[in-house]
Amino acid sequence: MKPFALWTCFLYAFVYATSRRHDTEGAFDRKDAIGYVCVSLLLVVCNLAKPSFFQVFMPAVFCMVVVDFILTKGATKKSMIASFLMVVPTMLVFVIQYGYYFVLGEGPAGEAHVVIAPLLVWSYYSENIPYSLLCLVAFPLYAYLLSGREELKNPYAILPVLCFVFGIAEYALFAQTGKSTYAGNFAWGYYIACAILWTSSLVLLAKQISGWEKASTIRRIAVFGCCILLLACFIGGVYYYWLVMTGAHWF
Fold first, then answer.
1. Exposed, middle or buried, 191 (CB in 10 Å: 0-12/13-18/19+)?
2. Which phi and psi (to 5°) does residue 176 adopt?
3. What integer is the mean pLDDT of 76-83?
């Protein structure tokens, strides 16, 4: 699921950035439309594998394009409409999936319903949620702070953050009743959004490293610090998996 989600998210970011530029220039063309069709097909594939990605991607796209439309005073109208049409096929599939599992109760978990239960599932998997979030966002936040304002206006940087925000909201607020309450099905959107955010952060750090020779001493120290933090996260991840494999920690 994650490779398809990553591919879909960053392909859309590229398509939107390109069509947005063409849109503001009055040159939105057939190639832009084809790009949206490709993303739409990938979204359907993602949703058939697992609908979790769509649950965080769709609201993120909506927020990004609507705010962009407002800020540009309507100059990105065609890109916004294309983005809305792009998600329609997947939305239809999603509605059918939701009806099958939660209305008819035909899923493998049996009769289940979606309920609002703040932190019910998340607190089951984490003894200290703020600390868990801090460990997770430390490197991405550092990498984003290193990047310039213009860089952060790029859809490649904006969309992963929005997906992550909606992933947190979904994980924190929703649960399902029945046998799968603690299976964490509403956590998967958050997990996928984490992978997307980290991928974006790695790209931003790579851009900073590529400009190492022209950077000032202070900038080099800051970039080196970010690399050290990344290494610390990697070592922590290896240690975590060692605990899991040895049975010392099952989460």
1. middle
2. -125, 150
3. 95
Tokens read off for 245: 């494999």
pLDDT over 90 (residue 62): yes
N-terminal to C-terminal alpha carbon distance within the chain: 21
- pLDDT at 143 exceeding the cut of 60: yes
Structure tokens belonging to residue 149? 């304002």
Q: What pLDDT score does 249 carry?
A: 61
Q: DSSP string covering 196-215, please? A: HHHHHHHHHHHHHHHTGGGS
CA distance 44 to 88: 10
**DSSP assignment string, 137-171:** HHHHHHHHHHS-HHHHTSHHHHHHHHHHHHHHHHH
Residue-wise pLDDT tens digits, 80-112: 999 999 999 999 999 988 887 777 665 555 567
- Quick check: helix, strand or coil at residue 6? helix
**How many angstroms separate the CA atoms of 251 and 219, rounded?**
38
Residue with tokens 């962009």: 68
Per-residue pLDDT tens digits for 183-237: 888 899 999 999 999 999 999 999 999 988 888 999 999 999 999 999 999 998 8
